[in-house]
Design goal:
The complex is a heterotetramer, with 2 copies of chain A (336 residues) and 2 copies of chain B (393 residues). Chain A is an alpha+beta fold. Chain A has 10 helices and 8 strands. Chain B has 393 residues and is α+β, with helices and mostly antiparallel strands. The chains are: A alpha+beta (336), B alpha+beta (393). Chains in contact: A-B, A-C, A-D, B-C, B-D, C-D.
């Protein structure tokens, strides 16, 4: 517990709540220096050797400040490399631990193999591919590192509503996968996928709930300050009750997140359920937050809309609520 | 539904006009604020010429003298033909007109009304940063110095003020007595010295609204509407100027735009997803119901049996349906909707679902927030106790 | 319009709001005397010759008092007989107009024909079959009158939560359909079904909304009277706003109902949509009503629960919201 | 999750006991109030004998002296084994115990605590028709006459008062000063002359609650807990006696009962209805989340880091999940659910969906309504302004 509090304190000092979405490149240097890239890397591999609680606490704080730095895909990319049996594994681990960036993509890839084995298609939804050395992607032959400067690889930014982050299409056009950069074969890709998916869902859930807490804080603060009809609007019971419901939903989603984080055996559906609930709650909180802010919430002057836009993107990352609610339902039906 | 013969005739006329003149590609020419304004001016000019721009004005004006039933026909057809909404000229033809017509001097009327038809546009300087739902709390101060009022303060949420020629301005001339009693109503030239307009950057990228900063602006006393300190009553005439037509028109437009949701369902191959079909069916019913109540509201107005609170019900049900509409689109559109796409200025059902979603808040917040409407419904329709004026903690 | 107001006034005098669920048999005599059985019967057939607005106004008022008398199935049964080409049609019309009862069933029938053409199975959800002369049911050969005292027909009451009404199973066991009592053949059954379904949906919608209005009235009245923390609970803004939302939803559903009633061309899906919305709103209003009543709402002492139970049954009559929302969605998709 | 070794041992013990002794057919023997009471008494007797009935009592009592962590283990296992909830003995072992233990005289403790283990049951006489959410508004009047208080008034929502032996009674001994100051706490014999109990007919057919009418009931002054006029503080001890275990237990029971929804989905052949699967998945997640927060709440209590308002969050999230659970069942069950089926007394997840739905209101209304909890969350966790004590209209 003490360890977690220390991490949280350090994060809040490094990324204070007042400075939303601090610059990406500075943030990247900072998270590298603070060891957050290697927080989950075992000590014998040169990492901090901390567990899922630690990374969750960090992602929670990064969500709170709408961090611009792609820590989640970076950690997942490193984890994929670490889990591999690639010959050059330790060099890559060292490189990535030192600040090189090889993100895992969090949205689906649509790739086709030609007769000669070369690949074409788009790996969509790669965060900050402009600063990446390679992308960790699931190719037909298994997970692989795809260097972004390789022949047949181009990178295109696609502007998104969520101004706190940047998404890229990594487009392959006759790309020839380098066998030395294969992380798994086709058969073991799905085991790695499940491991990474669990981590990704929990990390995103933490991002959602850190941000939801911050959005709630901003809203409550605004309600106490904003006066209409000669009283702070926080005095209007109808509005108070809505704030109470926001708080309740956030607290419940947090409890589910932490129960998933602490259960090493939690299956993908359980982790995805935690992320789905967290993302839905984040969206709900920001929607209510805009309404409770009134006019000012509709202007770029006030930051509350930035939370809403991040919430809307988070809903879609690693699969939408529709997709996961259905899978969770299907699995629960099979088990009961 | 069949109308009376004269309404049928009008309907045919309007249809014929629209078939010939309705701008087809107006969304494509409304991708920037400038293009939007140009498109709006063109369309307004055509409607003035055709006699459909100001059906609610007196018969003395070209195209005026229409009954509310006739106005309804015109707006229904404009909605069905998916024409641009008359956003730029709305304040001029409704708010400014009603204010001038009901409360202004003959001289003021003669000066301003014809110019509106020539394309002069107005904006409304009512809300302030500290006076939104609580409009009577305005602080913009006007001091009389000889023949002019000297005005200082700030207005906000003024639709299209950046391109307006004139402004309906509420100012405080006294701080004594009840808040409402010290308010005066002025007509301000937007070119006057000391007026600065700053567009509000809205979260979806639109710039429909602006702030107006007033720094020692001099407004001639002759531009006052009504007596000094009696501006609150004049403001009520302004606010009551349009009730019903817009929401009827917008509801019909939303019904037409349900095809955009159907398109998404097909594009994403949800045709056999029973959950999606149910949610779509539910939305279709919700939108039909909003059209029905907007219709009924107008019919009641036509028949003189509107009740207090009816307008609040129509507004809240429209705004919630619009939210539901845009949220279903956002959900069905999936991750693609998170990539920025061009917006259409001044439109609510564009199929750019993030923009539409954000726009839907304009209806739960502006023009009397959802919460204010709930108070009206509870207090004035259900006769529940009013919000207390003060309380003891 | 005046006609409608007169009908409403007469209904409110005959069935005052204070007397919820007045006795069924007395009510039946009263509605017969008042001509409500024949309100839609053409004048040349001895009826009042009024339109859908008139019957809607009556059903609305019957909903308001949670009427026990099965006016909706009776009117539909009469309408089915009237639309038929049965030889004994006019005798039956006269009989039914005079107070005999031949209800249309509002829930599905599951019947099977044996090799000899006799029928077995259950016609479920027949209102007040104990007082019926016959039931109007859709048999494999078409719509028919099934006399409840015929050989092979038995009637069983099945107690329901909604104490304002009584449902029966009409069980056929080797029942031989009387050709003289066939109302349609198999081919024209579906046309009649559509006509009756439209009428049934709109009538039920009116029942829902009359009752929803009454439940809202009771709730608002209670909120003004009930004091906690030294003030009427109607003064608490959070509760006021909920009442406002109830009012809004009821008003919107009513508008849709009347637009369907006045549109003679409204298709089945439109009528079903009006009923679905009305039933959902009725359920919503009664659920909120119980919450706003607090403890007293959970006791049989207070009538508010009777509205909730009727709402729950109404949701299911003529097809559930799930069924109809899907059909409405499917149709809208095909049309747009 | 793995507990500490001693907790693991306890868990195994409890499981072994339950495997042997848990009543299997208790729902079938709880179809009437009488059968339910008998089933409850039997089960309580077995638990007392096994040492699991009063784990929260001091070690001096058989089976007492358990830590909260141990209590949690016991309740988890009771829930997982789907045993009857300890409804009849709940007020005795929690409310009466806490009150006696924390506030009563040694003599009172010695008289009453052992009898509870022998099966004496208590009820709570707190709420009144005019004092629900606003408990301090009670009007039941006690006048001291020599050695006795003479009590007149009416209590309501008293759980199982019809079969209770004793009552924890709040009365008003003074109307001066703040409402709270005139309240006195008495222990009343339910057999006393002038006590009439009338079961409340609940809308789902249960009779869990009763009204108590008090007509010149004489209660010895020796049966007073604490000083005259200091009853409000004693009542706080009563009300604080159980916080967390019940909701944890009930959440686990609801999770177990999700199989009832799964059954409906199979029975109605919705296995491939994506909408239904999504709604079920959503409910499963909601219930899991409620279990997680109930768990976390108890862990926080065990670790001494509970915060004000935490209990309100757990209660509101449980009650809303219970509503959602029963509504999904009601919806999926279709028309069949509208036919009356036998209820199970004292159970919340019976698969009789109408009854379960109605029962779910007990959790949004009783024990501090959802609205009261929202006030607590807003005012005490979010530090928003409190409800005003009075206001000026």
């Amino acid at each position: 517990m003490i360890e977690l509090n220390e991490l949280t304190d350090a994060a809040q000092k490094a990324f204070p709540a007042e400075a939303l979405s601090p610059g990406r490149d500075d943030s990247w240097r900072l998270v590298t220096e603070m060891g957050w890239l290697i927080v989950r890397l075992p000590e014998n591999a040169g990492g901090l050797g901390l567990g899922r609680e630690a990374s969750t606490a960090i992602h929670f704080e990064m969500g709170r400040v709408l961090a611009t730095t792609p820590l989640i895909p970076a950690q997942l990319g490193l984890q994929a490399v670490l889990a591999s049996s690639m010959a050059g594994r330790s060099e890559w681990v060292e490189r990535l631990a030192g600040g090189a960036y090889a993100p895992l993509h969090l949205l689906p890839a649509a790739l086709e193999a030609a007769g000669d084995g070369t690949l074409s298609g788009t790996i969509g939804g790669v965060f900050d591919a402009d600063m990446a050395a390679a992308v960790v992607a699931k190719l037909p032959g298994g997970y692989a590192l795809v260097p972004v400067n390789a022949a047949g690889v181009t990178v295109h930014e696609r502007p998104i509503w969520d101004a706190s982050r940047r998404l890229f299409d990594v487009v392959l056009d006759g790309y020839e996968a380098d066998p030395a950069l294969m992380l798994t074969d086709a058969a073991s890709a799905s085991a790695l996928h499940d491991t990474l998916a669990c981590e990704a869902h929990l990390a995103l859930a933490a991002d959602c709930l850190g941000a939801a807490n911050a959005a709630l804080d901003l809203t409550v603060e605004y309600m106490k300050m904003r006066r209409q009809f000669d009283r702070p609007i926080a005095m209007f019971q109808a509005l108070k009750h809505r704030a109470a419901d926001m708080k309740t939903q956030v607290a419940v989603a947090e409890a589910l997140l932490w129960s998933g984080v602490r259960d090493a055996q939690a299956p993908v559906t359980a982790c995805a359920a935690a992320k789905t609930l967290a993302a839905e709650v984040f969206a709900f909180v920001t929607e209510e937050a805009i309404q409770l802010h009134g006019g000012i919430g509709l202007t770029e002057e006030h930051p509350i809309h930035r939370f809403m836009k991040r919430a809307m993107l988070n809903l879609q990352l690693c699969g939408s609520p529709d997709l996961w609610n259905e899978r969770v339902g299907r699995e629960a039906l099979a088990l009961r | 539904m069949t109308d009376k013969p004269d309404l049928d005739a009008l309907r045919s006329e309007v249809r014929a006009f629209l078939a010939a003149e309705a701008p087809a590609e107006w969304r494509d020419t409304s991708r920037t604020q400038e293009d939007f304004v140009r498109t709006q001016r063109d369309w307004f000019g055509k409607l003035v010429k055709a006699g459909y721009a100001i059906p609610h004005w007196p018969a003395a004006f070209p195209g005026g003298g229409r009954s509310l039933a006739e106005q309804k026909v015109i707006y229904e057809e404009l909605a069905k033909a998916d024409c641009p909404r008359l956003l730029l000229s709305f304040v001029s033809t409704y708010h400014a007109f009603a204010t001038l017509h009901e409360c202004a001097s003959t001289e003021q009327q003669e000066r301003y009304l014809p110019r509106i038809l020539e394309g002069e546009t107005w904006c409304q300087g009512f809300s302030e940063p500290g006076a939104g739902s609580d409009l009577a709390a305005i602080k913009t101060r006007a001091e009389r110095k000889g023949d002019v009022y000297v005005v200082n303060g700030q207005k906000v949420w003024s639709t299209m003020a950046q391109v307006a020629d004139k402004c309906l301005l509420l100012v405080r001339t006294s701080s004594d007595g009840p808040k409402q009693a010290g308010i005066t109503y002025l007509l301000m030239d937007m070119q006057a010295s000391g007026v600065t307009v700053r567009p509000i950057h809205q979260i979806q990228g639109d710039e429909e609204f602006a702030e107006i900063f007033l720094d020692n602006v001099e407004i001639p006393v002759s531009e006052r509407v009504g007596e000094e300190g009696k501006g609150w009553a004049v403001a009520q005439a302004t606010l009551a100027s349009e009730r019903g037509l817009t929401l009827m028109e917008l509801s019909y437009r939303m019904r037409g735009a349900l095809s955009r949701v159907a398109e998404l369902i097909r594009d994403h191959e949800h045709e056999e997803d029973r959950g999606v079909l149910r949610d779509f069916g539910h939305l279709v019913t919700q939108v039909d119901a909003v059209c029905a109540i907007a219709d009924q509201f107008l019919d009641n107005r036509i028949n003189g049996i509107e009740r207090v609170g009816d307008a609040s019900i129509v507004k809240n049900s429209y705004s919630r349906a619009l939210r539901a509409y845009s949220k279903l689109g956002l959900r069905l559109g999936g991750v693609e909707e998170q990539y920025i796409a061009p917006i259409t200025f001044g439109d609510l059902n564009t199929g750019n679902w993030m923009a539409d979603f954000m726009n839907s808040y304009a209806w739960t917040i502006a023009g009397g927030s959802e919460e204010v409407q709930r108070n009206i419904i509870a207090e004035r329709m259900l006769d529940m106790p009013r919000e207390p004026k003060a309380w003891v903690a």
